């Protein structure tokens, strides 16, 4: 078996809950502001945060939503989101984090599958929440704010619970985010206190986090990237967050400037803006030392363009919900363009031939497998999907095609299921997309396979053009200069925007469905 591991020392595994891990740092800085609501500048100190978490945990418990209960949280980012999340955890419950832009039908599926008994939302999504609760176990709806006739979160506080309600750190699901995994419809990912705590400490160590870091937090807390890498890492490591309910470039830049942020946590679509948008020049971003991108591959050309524009280091990491989420981080002391980095402490990797299961040597493409204490417990109510994803000896099959070089740096090539098969050749959409967005006349791009009876699939691109827009012939000539003949585009479609998930991943299935309907 060929395995790859970081030479850095492993971190110690601690026997505490995720909220105890957060409190351990906050208790020595009770008067410091740790959470700020970006649009309103409302702030919360560490002491206020701890107090609210303990009182809300007490109120939830007294109303029957304590230990063993599942609470749905459907809200954009705010300081109150952090309070609710950790109050449920402190009370011994489980949070199932829900995309606030879900339709009632999508919400209904998650509430039923997770078994949530209480749903907490905001006024904007109250009607959708009410409709989506029909036929579920969720009999109570609470609003962060005020809606006439609805129960407010302010009424849920009670006598504080002073200590963590006992839970099995390895077997209790503290959070149930939903992910499609490598295939299929969204599934509940069972993450334990151990998973979250370990990954917080791994990320702090691998990412070189420093006390006092303040970041603009637009990455949604319902998604594991925003949840554990931003919310929990910043609170646990001596930092602070300025929350944003949605991405707004001006507010993001204003926060980064005013708080002298050391790093920006982003996804690839934001990298495009940082590299190309003229608004960037209106702000003093000299404090930015690094831009860290995750959730989807970032091409070397775009990564380098961000680095040059902001005079900082542009880094990538790798992870997935099933990994709590991080397994790889590019060290700021030794970046490598286009790489997703080195394995975190306590983490092992393999590159496996998806056809025959053989381990592959450095430099060869195969499916990335990961093993470590951050690997999920499994999928809720879906033992078959769990067995298909995690081997009997604990290796998680990521579904990503990757290369690990001789120095241990990992490069994502593409999703295994998204590879385009052209006359027997495998074409990686991410590679074509990275080449396209490096063109000055292209703001964004997505590539899928177009069914063809002779070739199997033909690469085609959906493109958001900049001004001035290139012609189709110019784009094809540009691609011919950069890529092999079998990677050339056979069709180009200009669109206003590329469909993406909240975490920035291209929704290729939406484009495939559109193509099939034309």
CATH fold name of the largest domain: Rossmann fold
What does the radius of gyration come to? 23 Å
**Count of helical regions:** 14
Structural class: alpha/beta
Which second-level CATH architecture of the largest domain applies? 3-Layer(aba) Sandwich
What's the CATH class of the largest domain, please?
Alpha Beta
Order of the strands making up the biggest sheet? 1-19-20-22-23
Overall geometry: globular
The total number of structural domains is: 3
Strand composition percent: 15-25%
Oligomeric state, counting identical vs distinct chains: single chain
Structure description:
This protein is of the alpha/beta class and about 525 residues long. It folds into three domains: about 20-170, Rossmann fold; about 195-415, 3-Layer(aba) Sandwich (Rossmann fold), CATH 3.40.50; about 420-515, GMP Synthetase, Chain A, domain 3 (2-Layer Sandwich), CATH 3.30.300. Strands 1-19-20-22-23 form a five-stranded antiparallel beta sheet. β14, α9 and β15 form a beta-alpha-beta unit. α2 crosses α3. The model has no long low-confidence stretch (mean pLDDT about 95).
Main attributes of the structure:
Rossmann fold, alpha/beta, 3 domains, 14 helices, 518 residues, five-stranded parallel sheet
